Amino acid sequence: MPLDVHIIECLEDNYAYLLRCANSGRTVIVDTPDPDKILEEAGKIGWDIDEIWNTHHHWDHAGGNDKIREATGAKVVAAASEADKIGHVDRMVSHGDYLRVGENEAEVLDVGGHTSGHVAFYFGGADTVFTGDTLFNLGCGRMFEGDPEQFLTSLQRLKHLPGATSVYCGHEYTVKNGEFALTVDPDNTLLQAYVQMAKEKRARNEPTVPSTIRAERGANPFLRWDDPVLRSRLNMDEARDAEVFAELRRRKDAF
Ligand SMILES: [Zn+2]
């Protein structure tokens, strides 16, 4: 199905995404970091926002909801478990629910760990997923509310999506994430090439999104907890997957 994605760079390093069904014209904004910028961009390309979908409750993802709602009459869709924190949610969703952008169907995936009720939006027919602050290019979000088991389950869910799936995440952190990734997986040639490409894109002021699930599986240490070389480098050959994840997260927090 035809799903158009318009990337909007917001604030320091946030991304919001305008999605539009090319046939019906139905339009959704994924996250609302900078409502003025989003309304301006939507106006420029002539897309009328029908719905707001929030990946999680943080202010730089849901803080612009009210302004966009007031300007457009858009309905707000968010995880039931985060609705109280977000405020004024018209439709509450949870894992396994389906949403639509015109003819495009999206499955709601529970990907808690950064926040406990974080969700991703997976368009199987359009090979596209919006991962918010759960999975970044070459990284993952900080573990503010969840625990390692929960975060690992969420990352497993994303890792098992088809390799060709385009990944649109919530922040432009790729180069910094890549520098960390090279400290734990320095001999990974896929990672080396990925970081080089990301640096070149950023030097041209281009976004590094979207990535793909395949590229992340090959290079993102937070999807490689079961890789023997990475485990050996951490001296964690026999550790449980969640312990490897937790160690990677701990090292990244201190990086
Ligand atoms: Zn966040």
TrEMBL record:
Ligand binding (Zn(2+) 2): 60-61, 133, 171
Pfam families: HAGH_C, Lactamase_B
Keyword terms of this UniProt record: Hydrolase, Metal-binding, Zinc
Database matches in InterPro entries: Clx_II_MBL (IPR035680), Glyoxalase_II_hydrolase (IPR050110), HAGH_C (IPR032282), Hydroxyacylglutathione_Hdrlase (IPR017782), Metallo-B-lactamas (IPR001279), RibonucZ/Hydroxyglut_hydro (IPR036866)
Domain Metallo-beta-lactamase: 13-171
Cofactor(s) for this UniProt protein: Zn(2+)
Gene Ontology MF term list: hydroxyacylglutathione hydrolase activity; metal ion binding
Pathway(s) where this gene product acts: Secondary metabolite metabolism; methylglyoxal degradation; (R)-lactate from methylglyoxal: step 2/2
Record note on cofactor: Binds 2 Zn(2+) ions per subunit.
The protein's role, per its UniProt record: Thiolesterase that catalyzes the hydrolysis of S-D-lactoyl-glutathione to form glutathione and D-lactic acid.
Name the record gives this protein: Hydroxyacylglutathione hydrolase
Organism: Marinicauda pacifica
Taxonomic classification: Bacteria, Pseudomonadati, Pseudomonadota, Alphaproteobacteria, Maricaulales
